[in-house]
Amino acid sequence: MRVWLPIIMLVFLITAGCSEGNQTSEGSDKMGGDDLEGEWSGSIQVPDQPLNIIVEFREEESLQGEISIPAQNIEDYPLDQVKLNGRELTFQMSISGQSLRFIGAVEKDVIKGTFTQSGQNFNFELQKQKASSSSASKEDFMTIETITGTLYGSLLLPEKDSKPPVALIIPGSGPTDRNGNSPGIEGKNNSLKLLAEELADRGVASVRYDKRGAGKNAQAVTKEGDIRFDQFVDDAKQWIDKLNEDERFSEVVVIGHSQGSLVGMIAAESGITDAFVSISGAGRTFDQLLEDQLSKSLTDDLYQESLTILERLREGETVKEVSDPLMSVFNPSVQPFLQSWMAYDPAEQMRETEIPTLIVNGTNDLQVTKKDAQILADANPEAELLLIEGMNHVLKKAPEDREGNLKTYGNPDLPLAEELVPGIMDFLTQHGVK
């Protein structure tokens, strides 16, 4: 019998994306690339439930396009070989070592055709959106270049024209997007988006970015077996360098949420970062935290198996035989990544942190308890500790009971805990970041 593991921190993306050059054939007299340009939305008629998609085409030297699949947390993923021949349109999406192919016909403002994946065919239909829809207010993005491709970060500036401080907001584990959402959780909480907006209202700019494999950075994902924790740290360091070089900003602050706390702690080296804020960051090593989480969600036999696996991982070994219910956590392909994560002790990293530091945690956080916040605070007596009564892991006020608490994870209409941003602003002002 399979057992669901409700461990929000551990949602691993099992995809490997790549993007090839776009090509196009000459359009016919019947249809040109300029007719195709713009946003098209619709769905693929997969079994059980249609899969909503959004495709945007544009004509530069050749036809190009991007596809977004909201249910899979994929945004603006580049399309390959966009070709328009008369009214026949073909394009494909290369992901997970597969080429997902679309073949359709354009009739006025509708594209109808066939989507093919792994030899299976499904109908799809797209409707062209009005220009006012596609030209609506767009996010402003910054980029950094990495060996696996371009990474995008959403820049939000305060309305005032003065030179503001800027906060780099680092998301948590799994394929979490820049807004704090994950495909492993039904609905959206938009916690990091709300955080950025409230900071902007108080005069602080921010850059927040999708994890590799999510959102606009879906195409920059690394093969699962090659992912290491240091890659997350290197990405954060590169963003910090980018912001330090940008003359629009006065100071650089790093805000790390959940796994992003440890990433930010390591990346925010003294001298290049003016302040660090840890939100819901673990104080124990990942294996210790995971052991605690599993004890609350597994049957005795599966928990004992998980303890054996963790001990083997601590000893530098990997485990090939894993029970099906534990594969979502201990899949052999992700075990090297887990070992690279376990190698870092957050308390030790906090002890070495020399910049002004604020440690924030909610009293109703199901993933990272106030015990972890206290461990971090004890490791660095110079750090400030802010415990917010009733706040949970997605930064919303929530009840203590698990069911009621988890309901907030998919509700974007709930505001952030009211003490969170004022507490951050008080800390920044106190340390001269303004």
TrEMBL record:
Identify the stretch annotated as signal peptide in this record.
none
Select a single GO molecular function from the record's annotations and give it: carboxylic ester hydrolase activity
| Ranges where the Serine aminopeptidase S33 domain occurs | 192-395
Family annotation (InterPro entries): AB_hydrolase_Est10, AB_hydrolase_fold, Hydrolase_4
Q: What protein name is recorded for this chain? A: Serine aminopeptidase S33 domain-containing protein
